[in-house]
Amino acid sequence: MSSSGSGPVVAAPAGRLHGVTQDALNVFKGIPYAAPPVGPLRWRPPQPAAAWSGVRAATDYGPACIQPNARLNNIYADGPFPMSEDCLTLNIWAPANAHNAPVFFWIHGGALVGGTAREPLYDGARMAARSGAIVVTINYRLGVLGYLAHPELSAESPQHISGNYGLLDQIAALRWVQRNISAFGGDPANVTIAGESAGGLSVMYLMAAPDARGLFAKAISESGYMVSAPELKQARYGVPSAEATGAALATMTLHAPNLAALRGMDAQTMVNAAAAAGYFPFLSIDGHILPKQLVDAFDSGDQAHVPLLVGFNSGEIRSLRILSPPPPANAAAYESVIRERYGDLADAFLQLYPSSNLQESIWATTRDALYGWTAQRMAIKQTAAGAPAYLYLFDHGYPAADDAGLHAFHASELPYVFGNFDLTPPMWPKNPSTPQEAALSDAMLDYWTSFARTGHPTAQNAPDWPAYGSAGAYMLFTDTPHPSDNLMPGMYALHETAVCRRKADDKAWNWNVGIVSPPLTNTSAHCP
Prior knowledge:
Strand content: 15-25%
Low-confidence stretches: none
Shape: globular
Helix content: 25-40%
CATH class of the largest domain: Alpha Beta
Number of strands: 17
CATH architecture of the largest domain: 3-Layer(aba) Sandwich
Strand order of the largest sheet: 4-5-9-11-10-12-13-14-15-16-17
Largest sheet: 11 strands, mixed
CATH topology of the largest domain: Rossmann fold
Oligomer: single chain
Radius of gyration: 23 Å
């Protein structure tokens, strides 16, 4: 790497790039890692980016991938921002003196529908400056453009598969990092994949995807959810095949008689129409990119056996209330429904989620069935596979969030992990700038990046974080970090059994839990 009068220049295998100097960092933005997926490349696996001659400017973010027009009335909205199908770019924050530095590879959240690497909250400057790690953030295809499966798409594929294009984008970005990150001072053998929400889900799928094996050395999944996914070619678990869903969307909603018509549609119009019709993107189990359901991959030990840092937040559903049903009329009605739905599991359910506070119990049910069960399950399965796992529960509140009824809400750990209190979205409850809050952020940033460096999370002036191990250890983040064990006794066992019974009954497992659960009366299933 060299420096010109106006910023650093790196000669990477992909080509020469000109970035900007930010204090002691070299920053490069908007680097293409794959060709624009437009025209005939729409709904194809990512192809190599075109080579360029001379020095390419890498001084500004690339556009976000096409997604529904932003609604600016929620705490996560941070738009509007430029959008384009030509969006497969990544951004790099590298210490100027980096050499064989660990690489923190961040995958944004947004339900696989929205989000972008250009969100200020994901700015990697503070993380890179404090830790010495190289931070990479990426865009990947979203919504119908990223996950549409369709019989015609499968027919043109050599593997006879379709869908999962957003995941293939992530794999392509990881391959780009393997080929190029040494030029920026990074160690391609020490890449940590990390993400939150849909990013955490993506981390799980990368761990389960054979094509991603060897592209990363560690994994961090924040608020991931191990829900069932549609099978590509057959109806299963109570949902149509992914191909059938895609074909129905194309003909009934988009009025496209064939693939050529779909590829000829305006991308924004199509994305808006699909979202308005209720199309929700899922990855699909295609037998190739994703051979198995996540629960089956982790049960059989087919996931990547890498060190794992995983956890969730106590208030996940406080900011995602659409995921939980409204409370019933009274406690008696609640208990009656739970006994009807959970059968012999009802007593255990009501002990964890009592009728004494219906709203809190309903929020906690959805939180645990999606995020809590997933996090502990991943820790258990990684430990069983012989890889260290570090589990956390983020239960930290601060005045603006608590006053809004959003204690430890979904994604509220992110300003602490990135150190970006001043870069949160406009309606985000503002984090206070106090020494205590700064100390918690420093500790979390240190834990995350030391894990990326060594596979063991440590932090200055903070307690050691024990591996999950046989004792079920975890780190509780309140105002300070507290090592503990035996997270929420009974929670994991209840939801593990519920998922097992749903699988045995060929029913989906996601947010249809608690009072909206299907009956779980199949006691003959071989469940823990």
